Amino acid sequence: MRISRGLLLLLYILWCITPLSFCQGPQAGTAPFFSPVVESEPSEPDSSAQDTEPIEPDSSAENIETVKPDSSAEDVETVKPDSSAEDIETVKPDSSAEDVETVKPDSSAEDVETVKPDSSAEDAGTTKPDSSVPEQPTAAESPSETEPESEQKPVKKNTKLYVLMYHHFIPEGKKYNNWMVTDIRFREDMQWLADHGWTTVLPSQLVAGEPLPDKAVMLTFDDGYRSNYQLAYPLLREYQAKAVISIIVKNVDDQQSAFLTWDMCREMAQSGLVEFGSHTYASHDENENGIKRLAGETREEYEARILPDLQTSIDLMEANLGKAPLLFAYPNGVKDSWAAGFIQDHFSLTLITRHGSCDISKGLYSLKRCNVSMGVPLSDILPD
Description:
Helix content: 25-40%
Largest sheet: 7 strands, mixed
Distance between the termini: 146 Å
Number of helices: 8
Number of strands: 13
């Protein structure tokens, strides 16, 4: 009877001691699954407990592997929750999560990189970047490799054109009038233009809309005197200057001795230095009327007299030079409104004899001209 009581007492004592051995603090690296308790001095672990079988995990958590801490790791600090921290939310593992391996870190391994699983992707890990590697700048943060292009102010186009008017050229020493210059004077004019940066242009360039040089001048020879070929043309070739000759077509077609021939005209046209314009077929004569209407003349009479004359000049020039003229020079600089429509339909550029410079932005009709004579040097007509 006493033996039975003694066995019962021993079993009772063992029954009381056994739970205490499992009520130690939480293992290192694991979160507590109980409410915070008052901190107390840790008791020294029983050496006999080293060979104790590990406690089996909760059967509701399937395939969760519990790694036993290394018993050889000494002086491991046991972190207990702060008793002053209240309302700490205790997170329990989801018992429905399958095939999740929970690894307890080795307390003896320092500076080990911890890989946290991505909660949004199953079985996928996100590696925390190494803080020792400097962050590379993104493309947006990188400085631009190319310097921004500096804004260039638009270049102002030149629209000012000077038109010089010559007629007849004579050898040096001959008598002259206001419509004549000597060959020596014409050479001086060509040299002055070259020295002061002037560039000669042709009607075709103006009609094509080519930009004007800063100093643009157009040389015009009226009437079609033979001296244009004999004295002026050699100097044009020497200085590579350009000019337009407005011919009285009847005088050329009739092969009058004082005027150009078609062969001379073709030779000069083929050089690329000379173009030709119309100065009427036969309306520029000694009467000085030009295309001006006559006193008492009706419009029908006027158009019957002038328009066929203009058309004949165009037809003959096209037949002999291969192209219709772009330019018409008014005889004596006199215009008439009854011929204006025909002239605009057949010519792209017209010349008058009024003195002054031209602004081609306002159009190419009725361009002013400056007459060149022996008594007035070119420096008095054109700016330096």
